[in-house]
Amino acid sequence: MSTAADPVTDARAPGSGNRAAGATPSGPSARRTFWLSALVGVIAAGVTLGVAELVAVFVGAASSPIFAVGAWVIDLVPGWFKTVVIDLFGTADKAVLLLSLALLILVLAAVAGVLEYSWPPWGMVTLIVVAGVAALAVVTRPEGSGILALSTVVGMVAGVVVLRALTTRLHRWRDRTRPVSAAVPGTAALDRRSFVVYASVAAVGAAIVGFGARMANAGSTAVSTVRTALKLPAPATPAPAIPTGAELDIPDLSSYVTPNAEFYRIDTALQVPSVDPSSWRLRIVGMVENETEITWDQLLALPLTEHLATLSCVSNEVGGGLIGNALWLGYPIRELLALAKPKGGADMVLSRSADGWTAGTPLDVLQDADTEALLAVGMNGEPLPIEHGFPVRMVVPGLYGYVSATKWVTELKVTTFADDFGYWSDKGWSEKGPIKTESRIDTPRGGTVKAGTVAVAGVAWSPHTGIDAVEVRIDEGAWQKARLADTASADTWRQWVFEWDASVGSHTVEVRATDATGYTQTSKQAPPAPDGATGWHRVSVNVS
Ligand SMILES: Nc1nc2c(c(=O)[nH]1)N[C@H]1C(S)=C(S)[C@@H](COP(=O)(O)O)O[C@H]1N2
Ligand SMILES: [Mo]
């Protein structure tokens, strides 16, 4: 910013009638003052959020107001709206939510600034009310508590101080345009400097402190350090070795086991819950003879089982990527349920996460001796990644994640479908969610290929039932058998390949699978809601 000339007064010099010849430069125009007062509001909001983030480093990441408000919005909006947003933005839905929230805050902040300048104390009142709502959101979250309001309250106090101080400075500067201000000692240049310096320091300070603190909060450093240092016990019952024939080794074909870094992630958590294993507990409550509680150390001391299973999201479109196969390490849930002894009449287990999310799983599936439903602690040879549920989650072969795969799980409530419902089942999704038989073409995924033999390959799944056959057809011709890769069990997807003698031109390729019950995938196109998408995956390929 130039100090030699005063851009404010220079710009409005011609025709401004309120300046006597030879008078000192005056303050900003009315119009400019309006925008500066809006800017004051934005800076005050920035200070509020920046300071709140800073305090949250000490009080706990769950006290961050913007994330608590975001989480609140997620829980409050109706199911159909969520479905629309997820359809439009897919897994970017959270970024979109946070961006909309930031925009709303920007507008409210500008309004607060303008109000405080022209109609005090209504700007302050606005800031306090908005911060109050945010504090309420923080406190009422499932992981919330009264003390967590501290971050927002301290941030709010800092914001009010800055709002007042900057508004006062803006008034002083602006008043230079009025003849009466000649009586006040000083010059517009000095008043301007006082405003600009205060505003810049507050804005830059808030940005640096806020950004730094946010990084610290997002890293949830404490729990990731604990996780890195962890060594899980070896399984008492290891998974059988994966047959070498399970992996076809075709470029662009999904690997049989999905690496953790590539495993899809779906949850409602704007901020990943940080759950320390040393304070983690699982309570088994509800319709049971013995209410049971198990700690992390007790869980690890039990004979653990290793099991390979494919997990899919009900929101997965035909051909979509919301599915993965991993080696899970955990303790069979049926054994824990046997300790708790469910009472007659119960038919559902409502599992609850540290962040309040719930899933309703059929009790008989969890008790079934042939279903490796696990309380999992390990994923592909390491502790669960934090975003995949560290320290403990559920994995139930054959069921979509929304009715079974509770991450950061802390409670199992034995109950009935008549009395309880899981998070999504209350929002237009089916209460039962067996994974549908499906298949996907991974390669070629469209584009252009060379004429001659083309390896068309992909995966097919019907977890817990198993896949018996995969067929491919070209240009809606006759169905032809693809070659199925080996599999470790019926609980995982299977790779398949079809050697296609591709001729020059444009072609369509389709796939369909038949599961171990003899059921062949329906051609009927259905959207994911309410209980999973159906239809044949089809790609268009140019052959040259
Ligand atoms: N706590 C919690 N657990 C959850 C969810 C959630 O929103 N919160 N989403 C479920 C859904 S819909 C799916 S598909 C799986 C996804 O697990 P992943 O992210 O490890 O792939 O987690 C399930 N467990
Ligand atoms: Mo899901």
TrEMBL record:
InterPro entries: Ig_E-set, OxRdtase_Mopterin-bd_dom, OxRdtase_Mopterin-bd_sf. Keywords: Membrane, Transmembrane, Transmembrane helix. Residues 1-29 are annotated as: Disordered. It comes from the Bacteria. The keyword Membrane applies. The chain crosses the membrane at residues 34-59, 95-115, 122-140, 146-166, 195-216. Pfam families: Oxidored_molyb. Residues 270-418 form the Oxidoreductase molybdopterin-binding domain. This is Molybdopterin-dependent oxidoreductase. The lineage of its organism: Bacteria, Bacillati, Actinomycetota, Actinomycetes, Micrococcales.
